[in-house]
Amino acid sequence: MVEKFLPEEEQRVEKNLPFLMKRDLSFSIKHRISKKADFERLYKEGKRVNFGCYLLIFLPSSLPRLGFSIPVRFGGAVFRNRRKRRIRNLFIQNLSDLPEYDMIFCLIKKPQNETIELEELKGIFEWLKSKKFQKDS
C-alpha cells in the first residue's frame, strides 16, 4: 500500500472535513434575526404575504436572515420546535438561491396535516427564489 504524505495543513483539513461539511449546513448567527429592534422594524415596515397557515413578513437587507413567530397557543414546545426546525432546514437548503431579505415566518393557523404543511413551506421557498417574488417586492 502506498502512503500519501500530505503537508501538515492539508492533514488538518482532511481530519476536520466532517466538521467543516456540517458547519456549512448549519444555521449561523449572521443569518438569524434575534434582536427585538429588528423584529419590531419588520413588523412595522415589512411587506406581508399570507400563505395559508403562515404569514411571511419581509424587508430588504444585506443578506438573507430568518426569524420565527410561533405562538404558544398553537401547541407545546415539541410542536413549535418542529415547525422552526422545518423552516430552518429549508432555509439552509435554499440559502444560496434566496434573495437578500430579512424574513419572519409567523404561524397564523394550526396546520391540519403534516405533509400539506411541508408542501406549503416548500412552496413559500420556491416563491422566494422565483422572479415573481422579485417583481412583487
- Helicity level, as a percent range? 40-55%
- Using the coordinates shown, work out and report the CATH topology: Ribosomal Protein S5, domain 2
Helix/strand/pairing category: alpha+beta
Q: What shape does the CA trace take?
A: globular
Strands across the major sheet, in which order?
1-2-4-3
Which residues sit in consecutive blocks of at least 5 with pLDDT less than 50? none
As for the number of domains, it is: 1
CATH architecture: 2-Layer Sandwich
Instruction: List SSEs in N-to-C order.
Output: HHHEEEHEHH
Question: What does the model show?
Answer:
- The chain has 137 residues and is α+β, with helices and mostly antiparallel strands.
- It has helices spanning 8-15, 17-24, 36-45, 77-94, 114-129, 131-136, and strands at residues 47-51, 54-60, 65-69, 101-107.
- The termini are far apart.
- The model has no long low-confidence stretch (mean pLDDT 85).
Keywords:
4 strands; alpha+beta; globular; 6 helices; Ribosomal Protein S5, domain 2; 48% helix; four-stranded mixed sheet; 137 residues; 18% strand
